[in-house]
Amino acid sequence: MLKDKLIDFLGYLSLERGLSKNTVSAYHSDLDDFTDWLKKEGLTDYASVRRDIILDYLGELKDIGMEPATLARRLVSIKIFFRYLCQEKVITKDITDVMDSPKLWKLLPDFLSTDEIDRLLKAFPSRAKDLLLFRNRTILEMMYACGLRVSETAGLNLSSINFDDETVRVKGKGKKERIVPIGKTALRFVNRYLDEIRPQLVKNPMEASLFLSKSGRKLNREWIWKVVKEAAKLAGINKNIHPHTLRHSFASHLLENGADLRVIQEMLGHADISTTQIYTHIDQRRILKVHKQFHPRG
Fold first, then answer.
1. How many Å apart are CA 233 and CA 174, to the nearest integer?
2. Positions marked active-site
3. In Å, how far from its chain's centre is CA 218?
4. Could you state, in order of their start, the residue ranges of all structural domains in the chain?
5. Dist CA 179 CA 167 (whole Å)
6. pLDDT for 230-250, tens place per residue?
7. For domain 114-291, is the CATH number 1.10.443.10?
8. 199-219 pLDDT, tens digit each
């Protein structure tokens, strides 16, 4: 379904719009990557693609260091494609028509201060009687404690947690696995969630997924998006926050406190150290700010 519509679109560009072979090839390359990503995220039709899903895709590209100009071109390709899908009545509404271009984005990833992280995590009270509020708090604690991607969080199983070693086994991109420390605070929340909350949510005793919906099914990445957005709203944080913000903050705070870049690379699951080095720019920005604030001739 996804690839079929893409082939139709490429034919439209070539035959009806009369675009050059090189231009069509560029659209093909951009959109092939996008449709592959959608398939990996479990999406099988364009009608189920929402604006925040596209933003998540662009956010991941930004996370691996894609240049703003390339991001801008990628979004233009997606916008033209979705305009075509709407025109052909494959979708009822063009969700990309109000999306800003990434050329306006800064290359450095957004991240939260430790105070903002504290406010975000406490947006869902730990003593809340509502089962789902405590589940949501546990999700946020895990994402920040381990630097997890949204898809990695959704993919956690009961067997992923090793309570003896205080680690979590994470299945990242390309099904590559890595072991990440959890930390005592997040582990405490997971323990209580498993003891008191999850047993009230689970319907099928054979369900292996860690985080469950109200109906007892595996919590998908879209719901985790909503959890993060709701927490930011409740915490009164006005930055454009998405699930990757917690991952960025995880890496930034480790670096600020003296963690080795290679260790951060392993915990994030980056194949190349150059991807992780983007966080050194964040630390340099912090150093410049401190110098300006405290040096007598700053």
1. 33
2. 149, 173, 244, 247, 270, 279
3. 18
4. 2-104, 114-291
5. 6
6. 999 999 988 778 788 898 888
7. yes
8. 999 999 899 999 999 999 999
